Amino acid sequence: MSQALGQVREREFDLLISDIALPDGSGLDLMRELQRQQKGIKGIALSGFGTQEDVRRAKLAGFTAHSTKPVSLPRLETLIREIAL
Are the C-beta atoms of 41 and 10 separated by less than 8 Å? Predict the structure, then answer.
C-alpha cells in the first residue's frame, strides 16, 4: 500500500488495479485514500473472495469493478476497456 501511495504522490493515474489483501494494508484502504486524494480515480479490485458482501465493500471503498481471482487476461482486458476507455 505504501508503494502505491508513493507512486500517486509522484504522478497522476487514471486506473488502479489492486489486490484486496496487500502485504502492508488493505486494497480497500488504499482505494479510500486515493479517492480522498484524487477524486475520480477508477479501480478494479482483485480478490480471492467474491461474495456479494465482498463486492459491496469494494464498491463502497470506491472501486469501479471487482473480479475474483484467478482472473483471466481476457477478463481483465475487458474490464480495463470498459472502465478506462
Answer: no
Domains defined for the chain, CATH in brackets: 2-84 (3.40.50.2300)
Q: What is the 3-state secondary structure (H, E, C) of the chain?
A: CHHHHHHHHHCCCCEEEEECEECCEEHHHHHHHHHHHCCCCEEEEEECCCCHHHHHHHHHHCCCEEEECCCCHHHHHHHHHHHHC
Cα–Cα distance measured from residue 3 to residue 10, given in angstroms and rounded to the nearest whole number: 11
Q: How far is residue 54's CA from residue 3's CA, in Å, rounded to a whole number?
A: 24
- 63 vs 41: CA distance, rounded Å: 9
- Is the distance from CB of 24 to CB of 6 less than 8 angstroms? no
Predicted TM-score (pTM) of the model is 0.88
Tens digits of per-residue pLDDT, 27-52?
Answer: 999 999 998 886 678 999 999 989 99
